[in-house]
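#structure-requests
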Amino acid sequence: MPELVKTRRFWLLAAGTIATIYALILVGGIVRATGSGMGCPDWPKCFDQWVPPTSESQLPDNYQQIYADRGYKDTTFNVRKTWTEYLNRLLGVFTGFTILLTLLFSLPFRRHDATVTHLALAGFILVGIQGWLGSRVVASNLNPGLITIHMLLAQIIVGLVIAAILRSARTQLQRINLDELPKHIYPLVILSTVLGLMQLVLGTQVREAVDLIAKQSNYVNRHLWIDNISAIFAIHKYSAIALVILNGWLIFQIVTHTRSVLLRRLNLFLGFLIIGTVVMGMSMDRLNLPIFAQPLHLWFASLIFGTQLAVLIVMRYARSADHVVEGTLSKA
């Protein structure tokens, strides 16, 4: 099989894996926003069945006592929550298969660039750990700290797959010319990416605070939740303003000072995502945390980090080519 065909197949499969992971992040956000995390109180089965029940009549009469004895005293069957959580699990299993195929299709690269295979292998291993961590989340009755780690691990996994794709295209990326960009822009791209991840983590802390308030209020009086969130919500909200300004300036500079179609499209997409995140954040602030906004806010934030990482890696490879050229000329 020609090398170009193998490369394109790897790109296509890895891109599909990235799309699947982001779909899983969105569904996971829906699970959390709708309180469906314990829709299946056991793992890997759901109410001790491989195919979840569709009505309470399919469960033992004493199923609540059974699960109370296992540490889930508040377990009640809700078909919507049960199937929401179960579909989330099925998508997780599908993601495992896609990243396995990504690893297999990365093997031809090990002869001339083993880093591509190593990145895919790291992603595959972490997906296994992610599956185990998911079981621990259920066993802990949705421990907030474990949920946050679970989400962050998903960001790392998708970041590894993005890095693998771009590494496999390193030769093409090294042809990108960054001469027209301001010299100090690369460090600022690094800074914005790091701050973006920190903002994402901060957002998960806000989410944990909301979950605690929601549970204490028995998921009623949603209009009162936002008034009871700690100061971390204000920190998250106002630090976002500085990040929007920084990223807006970077996007403008890159779009107007580079001829790279890839960099321009990535940054325009990044701008769209930032606008979407701001809109969802404002809707949560002004409309008392509507259910639709919470998963979308997390999803946009996750896509922002992945896009920022892609921009950073592309610029890194373009800069490395410049350094090689400079070093060659200095020796001539």
